[in-house]
Specification:
Three copies of one chain form a homotrimer.
Chain A (H helix, E strand, L loop, with lengths): L1 E9 L5 E4 L1 H11 L4 E7 L4 E6 L3 H14 L11 E2 L4 E2 L3 H10 L2 E7 L2 E2 L6 E6 L5 E10 L1
Antiparallel strand pairs in A: 1-10, 2-9, 3-7, 3-10, 4-9, 5-6, 7-8
């Protein structure tokens, strides 16, 4: 049994971490499978999906770390006028942070529930917001 | 057919790389599927799952690289007294290295065996040890 | 229904980004499943699989970013004579960039087609080329 859904998130800042854990748990519960795998995949190239402990202090450290590794102020080649954008691109950092963070995660399903470690939360990481973002959640189960 | 198991690893240092390849191969063989996908997922937020060539020299370079990218000595916001921990957190680096490395991997199964490239080993990367760690291995096959 | 195929790519430089999107789309179409998941997994430890917008300017920024994070000129421990290689290893950077980028990606399948966001392309990232590379594409569907 394979089931797919879309969830939408309106992010609230240029850099923003939104917890998706509850929405994924709810979809898994709806799917009514005993055992399986759930995957979470973003449809965007300036966002990431990452798993970490859900603490505000860590969210700050994640932002600082990604700004240190991919600096805001740097002569990116992508920062030029793009006909397909109709404007000068300002989101090279978002594309590059997305590459480092990754665009999906997955967890087992057992006894009908997603199995997370006790400190694990699933985050949508916004690197070019605020924007309305679409994420897929897919369950493979039996 | 979907099968899930847990494996436990007692890591041996603050930073430590433990090969999981043999344990994953063994579970795949037990599952007795012809074709499929095997996934390896950590339940922790200060560990990673990564795939690389299984050489001690590279293990040293992985450690140095992650210490360069996420320095041990830095004013992390997470480094404060946490009521839920009952102590001052000292593992911000572990959470951040985990984000860069990722928390899962997957490989195809063909003719009943996990298909790895000839240089590929699966590692549990410990970033806040030594600790007893739990990892899921899940097989989807037919 | 689970189907697995291999695709081969002859990369064209030491650092090189090759789009795999069309090949993955074609395999998904051949598999003739309605709903499912497609995964793309490299068999090598000095390549990555990454998802980003398919623009030459971004490809340049990806290369620069990875050379900044994992510098070409650094005293890597892996840079020594290796009996198994029969030569001095020169690809430590490739192994380390591979760890940061990751070695797989996955997308949903709906109505018989891989579902990508409008800006998403799938790349094989070569970090130690030119070489002939083998990648797995696996479809789980129904």
């Amino acid at each position: 049994m394979i089931k797919l859904t879309e969830v939408f998130v309106l992010t609230s800042g240029n850099f923003d971490l939104t917890k998706l854990t509850k929405r994924v748990e709810d979809f898994v519960a709806e799917c009514d499978v005993e055992t399986g795998l759930v995957t979470v995949i973003t449809t965007h190239t300036t966002t990431g999906i990452t798993v970490n402990e859900g603490l505000p202090c860590l969210e700050d450290d994640i932002e600082t770390t990604l700004r240190n590794l991919v600096p805001d102020d740097y002569p990116y080649v992508h920062a030029h006028w793009l006909p397909t954008y109709g404007r000068t691109s300002a989101n090279a950092t978002g594309h590059l942070r997305s590459m480092l963070v990754g665009n999906n995660c997955m967890f087992p399903i057992r006894d009908g529930k997603m199995v997370l470690g006790e400190a694990q939360d699933i985050y949508l990481a916004e690197f070019d917001g605020p924007q309305n973002r679409k994420i897929y959640i897919e369950v493979i189960g039996e």
